[in-house]
Amino acid sequence: MPPQGQPKLKVLIRRAAIQKRVREVAREITKDFAGERVHLIGVLKGACIFLSDLVREIDLETSIDFIAVSSYGKGKDSTGQVRVLKDLDSSIEGLNVILAEDILDTGLTLNYLLRVLQQRKPKVLRVAALLDKPSRRLKDVKADYVGFKIPNEFVVGYGLDYAERYRNLKDVCILGLPAE
Ligand code: IMP
Ligand code: MG
Which ligand neighbours the alpha carbon of 46 most closely? Predict the structure, then answer.
């Protein structure tokens, strides 16, 4: 977590690069699931903007749903205890599910979500993560579709927040203090 104080934002990935990459990921999904329907599940709240852009670039029959999970106390609690706060609206049994995440960090959230969703018998369960911080991984989980691999920096924008702020930034930015 960045310390309190006057925050400084530094652009890491520009809006145009995000748009281009999201389009490429959507194209890959369209190819991989040619002729089939895909059911996108967004992990609230961070993935809502990524999912909104991604689904509009997928040239297949689609449906969407959302799930919200509690965040664990980072730094304090590394047991990976995650809880569902808002469950899906409908069954995913037999569906081609693509879980859309904003960022794959330690992997604790995704590891939990994959276990929960796999129990519900989807036909296929894949993961699309806009960002991936591989150096932070505690659980051995991988995303099938990754927008960008990024260094170990705290980022905000394009859906990602710090204390609920900055989700509306068009670029993905590194959040830091002037002294950093
Ligand atoms: P994980 O369980 O550690 O993989 O964390 C995943 C969640 O932590 C993401 O869905 C984000 O909500 C949050 N998170 C991790 N890194 C960042 C970051 O750099 N900026 C904003 N949120 C983050
Ligand atoms: Mg999130």
Answer: 2
Q: Which of 103, 137, 153 for mutating ligand 1's site (highest number of atoms within 8 Å of CB)?
A: 103
Per-residue confidence in pLDDT tens, the chain, 180 aa: 655 667 899 999 999 999 999 999 999 999 999 999 999 999 999 999 999 999 999 999 999 999 999 876 554 344 567 899 999 999 999 999 999 999 999 999 999 999 999 999 999 999 999 999 999 899 999 999 999 999 999 999 999 999 999 999 999 999 996 665
Q: In a 10 Å sphere around its CB, with 0-12 CB exposed, 13-18 middle and 19+ buried, how is residue 160 labelled?
A: buried
Residue 73's contacts (CB-CB under 8 Å, 6 or more residues apart) are: none
Rounded distance from Cα 50 to ligand 1 centre (Å): 14
Ligand 1 near 99 CB (within 6 A): no
